[in-house]
Specification:
This protein is an alpha/beta fold and 548 residues long. It is built from 15 helices and 16 strands. The structure holds calcium ion.
Length: 548
């Protein structure tokens, strides 16, 4: 969109210009309001959110994958601002959602792992937005066990939700308070359909809205839509340099995880067995696409050495993952086109993010959880026509902890609101406007909890906490009492732990102090005694292996 007026005035049609000159734009140079440079009317907020979408799978972020996968996301970044250093507080699905709703770290919002039920009685940003006159709605993956609160409308997947023919729950005036409906088709498309229906006909057009559109994709088991089952068939996906990482530069946690492409992916993940949840016609399309590929693969399985097989699994995993993202991107294109059709684009802030990033073969892994860059960072793209300068990039340290306060600031809810004061993030609106506060944070706190001592836990990633600065990252696997320090400038793929390097002793000490300072600031309880050193004997087994 090319406009000839100043950024401050872009949002306003000519008829409103006179009124505007008397207020916002004309106020420049007089008493400076915190809302200066922003449209007079609080914008609508459209939050599009995916599950496990790594920023390095988005073209605009600089991806090693084919260029045509995310044209609509790339356009969103070209029209808005891309945050390059958005970290999550706890790299796993339900905890990230709870952090976003509450603006509080996991130990305060009651969802440190995927196992807890979110207490919907606690204060969340949608409730505050409702109080500020917003209509709120959420479509798609919720994943917090309890029913959504603070939403005027919702249509949510049950649990993780499937890729095909999902059952979805919405509020109803009956004894249960909700009704479940089965929707035939592909879940990414259906979530978008439901959201667009509400946008067109479901909402009260006199109120601003906050709409959250939350996809299941591209979460495991990466089932693409029928239209993309053959997409990328003729392409070789580039491998990361550390696909065959032997973890020699890292500690114990990297060795005892259970998330390797070579060993952890199942036949179901690899689409070598019939897929569940598809109807007859979907199954026919699926089999027509995968059966010939699987015949070649099964032959390969019999004849290949281990590395060849890992390479094949990597290709299968990545292609399915990227096919799912292709469908997400197409649906983002549909949403942007509908905003245009409804003449809503100029007055709607569009925010794209994921609950965390994901390993796409780096270190030989899929999944997330570790405080390593690939899954610690999450994409964050914001389009705010007339306010954010098109094509801008922000390198400051930001977090999913900041989203709640950002949404509330966009809605002009004063930060002195008691419930906002209890939140732990920062509004990103000043950064969006190119006005970085002088005291912006210089470090981010991280803590991952989902490792249980008394049973095997998904992917077996050990508990850890850490601090990230612009250049360094210090991680403490506290049940192992092992430290890892990375220089992100010299070693962006985190292959070389410097925690015991004497030349880095000083920076390690400084970061350890910063970690304690943040833990105190955020009121984090001591979790060091939570799990024994080696409850499953995995570390002992490693010792046995290495001595053989
Ligand atoms: Ca996730």
């Amino acid at each position: 969109m090319k406009l000839l007026v100043s950024p401050e005035c872009r949002l306003f049609p000519l008829l409103g210009l006179v009124a505007l000159l008397l207020s916002g734009c004309a106020a420049a140079g007089s008493s400076r309001s915190i809302y200066e440079g922003r449209p007079e009317k609080a914008p609508n907020i459209l939050f599009i959110f995916t599950d496990d979408h790594a920023s390095h799978a988005i073209g605009a972020y600089g991806s090693r994958f084919p260029a045509d996968i995310t044209p609509n996301l790339d356009q969103l970044a070209a029209d808005g601002m891309m945050f390059r250093r958005c970290g999550v507080t706890n790299s796993i699905c339900a905890p990230s959602r709870a952090v976003i709703l509450t603006g509080k770290h996991s130990h305060l919002n009651g969802v440190p792992t995927n196992a807890e039920r979110f207490d919907g009685a606690q204060m969340t940003f949608p409730k505050i937005l409702q109080g500020a006159g917003y209509q709120t709605a959420i479509f798609g993956k919720w994943h917090l066990k309890s029913e959504p609160t603070g939403f005027d409308h919702y249509e949510r997947l049950l649990g993780q939700g499937p890729y095909y023919n999902p059952r979805m729950r919405s509020p109803a005036d009956n004894e249960q308070g909700f009704v479940d409906r089965q929707h035939p088709g592909y879940t990414t498309d259906i979530i978008t359909d439901l959201a667009l229906d509400w946008l067109k006909d479901g909402r009260d057009q006199d109120q601003p809205f906050m709409m959250m559109v939350q996809h299941k994709a591209p979460h495991r088991h990466w089932q693409p839509p029928p239209r993309h089952l053959a997409y990328l068939d003729d392409v070789d996906i580039e491998e990361p340099a550390n696909l065959f990482d032997d973890y020699s530069g890292r500690g114990t946690a990297a060795r005892v995880q259970d998330m390797e492409i070579a060993t952890t992916l199942t036949k179901n993940d690899l689409k070598l067995v019939p897929q569940r949840g598809l109807d007859e016609s979907q199954t026919a399309l699926w089999n027509a696409a995968y059966d010939p590929k699987n015949r070649t693969m099964k032959q390969l399985l019999r004849n290949s050495d281990e590395d060849e097989l890992t390479r094949w699994k990597y290709q299968r995993y990545l292609k399915d993952y990227l096919r799912c993202i292709k469908a997400v991107d197409e649906n983002i294109g549909r949403m942007m086109a509908t905003l245009d059709e409804l003449d809503l684009s100029r007055e709607t802030v569009v925010i794209y993010s994921s609950d965390q990033g994901f390993f796409l073969g780096e270190h030989g892994w899929f999944d997330k959880r570790f405080m390593y860059e690939e899954c610690y960072k999450t994409p964050l793209i914001v389009r705010w026509p007339g306010v954010i300068h098109a094509g801008s990039v922000d390198e400051n340290l930001v977090s999913n902890l900041d989203y709640a306060q950002t949404f509330l600031d966009l809605a002009r809810v004063p930060s002195t609101h008691t419930s906002i004061e209890a939140m732990q993030g920062l509004s990103l609106v000043p950064l969006m406007m190119g006005r970085k506060p002088a005291d912006w944070r210089e470090s981010l706190y991280y803590q991952y909890y989902e490792y249980l001592g008394d049973q095997r836990t998904a992917h077996m990633v050990r508990r850890h906490r850490g601090v990230c600065t612009q250049r360094y990252k210090l991680i403490h696997f506290y049940n192992l009492d092992e430290w890892e320090l990375y220089d992100l400038q010299e070693d962006p793929t985190e292959m070389n732990n410097l925690a015991d390097d004497p030349d880095h002793g000083e920076i390690r000490n400084e970061l350890a102090q910063e970690l304690e300072r943040l833990a105190l600031q955020y009121k984090v309880p001591d979790d060091r005694g939570s799990v024994p050193y080696d409850p499953h004997g995995l570390i002992e087994a490693l010792g046995t292996q290495s001595s053989q």
